[in-house]
């Protein structure tokens, strides 16, 4: 997590820093966007939930303030050297984290040594069994043991440390659970110049499991629990069970929030209000996404076999990987100007003349000068030989376009939006989705009256299975419609 800080000018003017809203584009971004909102809600409600869980566990907990067996703890000091800092002289956050992990692991090993049963069977005053109700850990079992990180919980960076500071790391085992050991780590810093009161840098909780051997045999349940020796230790001990319950709740909720691809239709759409500023922002980002997708060198494309002259098609490598969006690319050279191609694509009423899968298309709302809202119905063509009968699917898309006549470049793209109150889905149709998809039209190097057309599509799997087999035929029809003279039967009257 990062925060935005004001500049000196903004502080003087007492203005609020405005952070632009992020509009997710790709399928992966949509998933992370929805999970990020959940994580934010967890962070906001964490202290309240932990406090409630702590109160619930207080009735079951008996305070044992025996100073003889206090929780395992250690403290060590590190000096911030030039290699530990960035160009501003602040200590790297990763370096602070490395020191925290070092302290946490060391204190766990210290606790493991203290937890081992005496070889002579003498009573050392500690619980006779491990936290899992089994025999205590033996010294011999530590020979091949190792620590496996389980989780890092709520590490808060509160202040920076700088070059030359003395950093004090304090780590203590707060509680041992049957499957993990929780450690609290606190980092403070003393300034090298002033030697003033230590400043708290950060604190957090880390969890480790004790394993042994190449087969990762779990040993954590053999470890004895800590016995609080002070009021502060007892407070951390009681809160630890609440933190553990909260981590488990968060983990299970995170699993439930992972949508399957087949049921994630709503994951690709963005909420849409034609009257808001967000409509224009979505349109601009949609155009930007198409250009970035066209220039993306990291995507791996596989060429499809084609017999259509002048038309080539590719699908993204890993076509059947339904954990991600399915992408399609088609290229063609058309003997018409880019502006003619753009006019035909923009004319929604003409869509059915060349699109094999489109049975209905209408502009239902104009959004300013460079965007409109379009409703389309997609269906398999009558001659579809696929053994799977696919139902008709409805699309509600925001269509954005950009015209650059001086450069002979035109872009038309669309993406699914959600506006169920104003434009609810039809009862007899299944609403499907597309991520930013569209056409880039630019003049060829040989002639301004000849167009290189590139179509880039990002579909849900169900729509991809319907569209992909007929994509080249759609582009062939589009090419044929434009290249026929307008005075001939079947020619496009809108061509210049």
TrEMBL record:
Single GO molecular function: long-chain fatty acyl-CoA hydrolase activity
InterPro entries: Cytosol_ACT (IPR040170), HOTDOG_ACOT (IPR033120), HotDog_dom_sf (IPR029069), START-like_dom_sf (IPR023393), START_lipid-bd_dom (IPR002913), Thioestr_dom (IPR006683)
Chemical reaction(s) catalysed: butanoyl-CoA + H2O = butanoate + CoA + H(+)
Gene Ontology CC annotation, any one: cytosol
Keywords annotated in UniProt: Fatty acid metabolism, Hydrolase, Lipid metabolism, Repeat
Pathway in which this enzyme or protein is active: Lipid metabolism; fatty acid metabolism
Domain START, first and last residues per copy: 272-483
Domain HotDog ACOT-type: 70-214
Matches recorded under Pfam families: 4HBT, START
Record's keyword annotation contains DNA-binding: no
GO biological process: acyl-CoA metabolic process; fatty acid metabolic process
Name by which UniProt lists this protein: Acot12 protein
Organism (species): Symbiodinium necroappetens
The organism's taxonomic lineage, starting at the top: Eukaryota, Sar, Alveolata, Dinophyceae, Suessiales
Gene that specifies this protein: Acot12
